[in-house]
């Protein structure tokens, strides 16, 4: 059966450790697009950052951004969006700031974070990403909860950067106090909060259904623990060679690492025998 969709995580998957795309990866994406495969990016990043990478790959398809809370091909015309309410955005922010933790609201048009500095090196690497577009405003304020009183926001994603000693307590309070949001740990230093029902795999399922495809038509390539459900969902789930063991053990295929062009290698190996839609149409016409 031919693969009709390729779903790709960005960080740890498409991008090398230096945050750049390898030319071989760009060539591989173009190669598979020319075969008529729908390629979508599935990421925790905000939409504009993901869109910048999509443009570098010459993709015009819909992007699954904000951990699955936002699906669009244009920032001002979302096909799907699911946001945390203004009230819960404020209340969660107030709780997190009471623990002297860093917090960031990741909107599709802007980012707002507080200035509390637990780990300045970590915050420098995670809050201001080098691939963030210039036209994506990144603002820091003394008290994010105070700002939200005057300027409420319905957040697609809230990012939390707790200290090790406060992480479990923050998690416990949010999980007990808010029944309609989900808190996920995406790394040792970072947790995210999204509206209940939001996930990469649920967003991918929506897109698959809208394109009239089946799960078996999909190859998904991911890296982290938060990609695991998407990898297990797909007809062929692929883990990167640099993925944690817990992810690699559940994948159907483990490719090379992101620094060894794992995406390009997997694409060439899997898709090289698959003909393009145009080829198959010509073949069917001739056969008749």
UniProtKB/TrEMBL annotation:
One of its GO terms (cellular component) is cytosol. InterPro entries: HAD-like_sf (IPR036412), HAD-SF_hydro_IIB (IPR006379), HAD_sf (IPR023214). Pfam families: Hydrolase_3. It comes from the Bacteria. GO terms for molecular function: magnesium ion binding; phosphatase activity. This is Stress response protein YhaX. It comes from Bacillus gobiensis.
